[in-house]
Design goal:
Number of strands: 5
Strand order of the largest sheet: 4-3-2-1-5
Largest sheet: 5 strands, antiparallel
Strand content: 25-35%
Shape: elongated
Distance between the termini: 100 Å
Structural class: alpha+beta
Order of helices and strands: HHEEEEE
């Protein structure tokens, strides 16, 4: 009815090192799949957002993290000044900008 302690303790399988490596493969495979499906696309999205933030210029229409729409009037190191309405300007941290709706054209150099 009850298993004796001798039966409960199984002997080690021959080729212990090879079988432990084979049992480790699914864990590595799961990590690779998670990297390809989740981590890598998120890193790409962060890189694109950083490039968008660096390219913000005066005159661009932007959306802030709070959902406010406005026009950039001044760009500083870590912040921008956004005009929400006539004579209503707010300073916003650059990283909270979520989208650039319309970009201004660069000034043409007529020589």
């Amino acid at each position: 009815m009850f298993a004796s302690p001798a039966f409960a303790q199984a002997a080690a399988a021959p080729g212990g090192a090879a079988s432990s490596l084979i049992s480790f493969v699914p864990i590595v495979l799961i990590f690779v799949i998670m990297y390809v499906l989740m981590i890598r696309p998120q890193q790409k999205k962060v890189k694109e957002h950083r490039a968008m933030i660096e390219a913000v210029r005066r005159g661009d229409q932007v959306v802030t993290g709070g959902g406010l729409l406005g026009k950039v009037t001044k760009v500083a190191d870590g912040e921008v000044e956004v005009e929400l309405a006539p004579n209503v300007k707010v300073r916003v941290v650059k990283s909270t900008l979520t989208q650039v709706l319309s970009k201004t054209e660069p000034a043409a150099n007529d020589a």
